[in-house]
Amino acid sequence: METVWIKDLPQHVGKKVVIRGWVYNLRSSGKISFLQIRDGSGFCQAVVSQPVPKITLETSVILTGTVSKHPKKEEYELQVEDLKIVQLAEEYPIGKKEHGPDFLLDQRHLWLRTPKQWAIQKIRNTICYATYEWMEKNNFTRIDAPILTPAACEGTTTLFEVPYFDLGKAFLSQSGQLYIEAAIYAHGRCYDFGPVFRAEKSKTRRHLTEFWMMDAEMAFVEHDENLKIQEELISFIVRKVLEKNQIELKILERDMEPLKKITPPFYRLTHAEVVKKIREMGGDMKADDDLGGDEETLLSKAFDKPIFVEKYPAAVKAFYMKRDPQNPNLALCADLIAPEGFGEIIGGSQREENIEVLLDRLAEHRLPRESFEWYLDLRKYGSVPHSGFGFGLERLTGWICKLEHVREAIPFPRMIYRLTP
Ligand code: 4AD
Ligand code: MG
């Protein structure tokens, strides 16, 4: 007998098959029992017309039966002939009643099984896969950046320290960017995709202390082209989710119309224009302020597509960003703000390629030159204009799934007050 995935049941109507999974709901009516089964690929109902042994929620089962189609709906059922219990589950702590977020986060190892959480992880998986696919098609080489690093990339205030043998201290990487910059001189266009760490004291719906970042870096690419690459990539990812994850988006009750609008070009506003706009909308923002969470929310509710906020005051941005030749107080950078109130999903910029200027920047940011000698070397041997960007996987997943908080976008969230399970 063939063992099949629930998602493939439509191809087996009228045939006898085996499915293996878990009972996530059950009811009986007279002599007939209806078991709701999940196997990781999808959900189906199994109808058992013979006496059923004691079964509890989350019991693991192997079922043999004939596949039938629901007379009216696009749903497929298994008419069970044989039911084998693999393990009879103990009383399951997650019930049908509403649970608070802390309880669910404590039960994260079990909460992952519920349909909404299942749908979120499936969409996260599509986002990763679509990213690899787009990168491959566009001549990017994946380069894995180290996680243990000797110095800060994004700023010294948000570093996690770890003792490192006789060498003293190491820091958990905040972004692989600097290393990916090195690799473009070998490969032209590169990206990394892995966990990064921020010892940020931010307790907001957008912050995790451990999250996944994709950093891309391109030789001979300047500011404008950097933004074009980002809008192409993001539009491709959203299109792939719409193609592959209809079932998941329905489970999440995600309105798909706003997602269908995500095509290039995205909106572009300078930081100065945003300050003006935020003030008009009643927000309180000074000319040299960074965009905070509240401003991001305001701005992103006012647009139906992602918005690039370009040319921030250089003072609020990282040391490696190139300055705008037209106004050296500004950085040639852009953050991408997702619509529908979501906020920042990408940070990026053109990079400073001149060694003298970069030395001044290191000094201004009080970063030790010794730790960056290798990075300075990149400006000595065939330096070229180059640009890059990084997206936060949980932010992207959170926006596409329209989640309240990014903690549901990662399997096991790490936040200031949470390190378990
Ligand atoms: O804007 P960030 O700090 O930029 C960088 O780290 C650059 N080195 C990236 C690059 O140019 N290669 O972080 C990039 C993205 C943000 O736009 C956001 O999506 C996400 O990473 N991010 C976080 N996600 C969850 N929790 C946090 N604490 C985050 N901090 C940043
Ligand atoms: Mg940022």
Sketch the major β-sheet. Answer: 8 strands, mixed
Q: Distance between termini?
A: 39 Å
Strand content: 25-35%
Please give the share of residues in helix: 25-40%
Number of H/I helices: 12
Tertiary shape: elongated
CATH topology of the largest domain: BirA Bifunctional Protein, domain 2
Largest beta sheet: what is the strand line-up? 7-11-12-19-18-17-14-13
Average of the residue pLDDT scores: 96
Which segments are poorly predicted (pLDDT under 50) over 5 or more consecutive residues? none
Based on secondary structure, the structural category is alpha+beta
Secondary-structure topology with pairs:
Layout: E1 2-3, E2 16-29, E3 32-38, E4 43-48, E5 60-69, E6 76-87, H1 101-106, H2 108-111, H3 115-137, E7 141-142, E8 148-149, E9 161-164, E10 168-172, H4 177-187, E11 189-197, E12 210-219, H5 223-244, H6 246-251, H7 257-260, E13 267-270, H8 271-280, H9 293-301, E14 307-310, E15 323-324, E16 327-331, E17 333-338, E18 343-350, H10 355-364, H11 373-377, E19 386-392, H12 393-401
Parallel strand pairs: 1-2, 4-6, 7-11, 13-14
Antiparallel strand pairs: 2-3, 2-5, 3-4, 5-6, 8-10, 9-10, 11-12, 12-19, 14-17, 15-16, 17-18, 18-19
Helix pairs in contact: 3-5, 3-12
The structure holds 4-amino-1,4-dioxobutan-2-aminium adenosine-5'-monophosphate and magnesium ion.
Q: What descriptive keywords fit this protein?
A:
five-stranded mixed β-barrel, alpha+beta, binds magnesium ion, OB fold (Dihydrolipoamide Acetyltransferase, E2P), 19 strands, BirA Bifunctional Protein, domain 2, eight-stranded mixed β-sheet, 421 residues, 28% helix
